[in-house]
């Protein structure tokens, strides 16, 4: 009987140790999540308006929603193919995509305008297009307000260039 009791006790100790280990792992994950959440909420590069003014250039849509909607309507009524780059100042992948879109804009200057929209200041416009994540790049044929191609997340310069040539300039 003593042997059975000892092995039973060892099993209980193993089960208790496994439970304690899983509890420790869970608590460490919560602590890491809390530190990450605090870091993300406490680190803001600058206000979206200041960052937008510094980092975007002449092709950026204005910060007010009314003017952004007007500019979009003007592009559609002109019948010229165009690209909209939905982005945000706080977004890391958007910073990577910024260089790609600057190169694309230089390559297609005079043929396909690239409009940059900050989703923080143009929430209604982003909502109208169903933007759920940034960066999002949408390609539009002339005279159409429906995108012919959409890239969500970071895309390569070659992929964006190829899509513009195939979908907008063919």
Tell me the structural class: alpha+beta
Uncertain residue segments: 23-59
Q: How much strand content do the residues show? A: 5-15%
Tell me the series of helices and strands, N- to C-terminal: HHHEHEHEEH
What spatial order of strands do you see in the largest sheet? Answer: 2-1-3-4
Tags for this model:
170 residues; four-stranded mixed sheet; 57% helix
Structural features, described:
- The chain has 170 residues and is of the alpha+beta class.
- Helix content is 57%, strand content 13%.
- The protein has a four-stranded mixed beta sheet, covered by helices on one side.
Provide a concise account of the structure shown.
With 170 residues, this protein is an alpha+beta fold.
Helix and strand layout, with pairings?
Layout: H1 2-42, H2 48-55, H3 65-78, E1 82-87, H4 92-107, E2 114-118, H5 123-128, E3 136-140, E4 147-152, H6 157-168
Parallel strand pairs: 1-2
Antiparallel strand pairs: 1-3, 3-4
């Amino acid at each position: 009987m003593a042997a059975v009791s000892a092995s039973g006790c060892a099993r209980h100790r193993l089960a208790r140790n496994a439970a304690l280990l899983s509890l420790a792992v869970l608590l460490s994950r919560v602590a890491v999540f809390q530190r990450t959440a605090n870091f993300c909420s406490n680190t803001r590069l600058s206000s979206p308006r200041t960052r937008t003014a510094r980092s975007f250039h002449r092709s950026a849509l204005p910060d007010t929603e009314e003017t952004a909607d007007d500019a979009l309507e003007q592009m559609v009524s002109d019948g010229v193919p165009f690209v909209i780059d939905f982005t945000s100042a706080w977004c890391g992948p958007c910073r990577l995509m910024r260089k790609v879109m600057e190169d694309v804009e230089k390559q297609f200057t005079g043929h396909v305008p690239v409009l940059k929209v900050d989703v923080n200041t143009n929430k209604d416009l982003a909502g109208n297009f169903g933007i759920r994540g940034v960066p999002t790049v949408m390609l539009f044929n002339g005279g159409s307000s429906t995108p012919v191609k959409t890239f969500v997340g970071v895309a390569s310069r070659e992929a964006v260039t190829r899509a513009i040539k195939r979908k907008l300039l063919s």
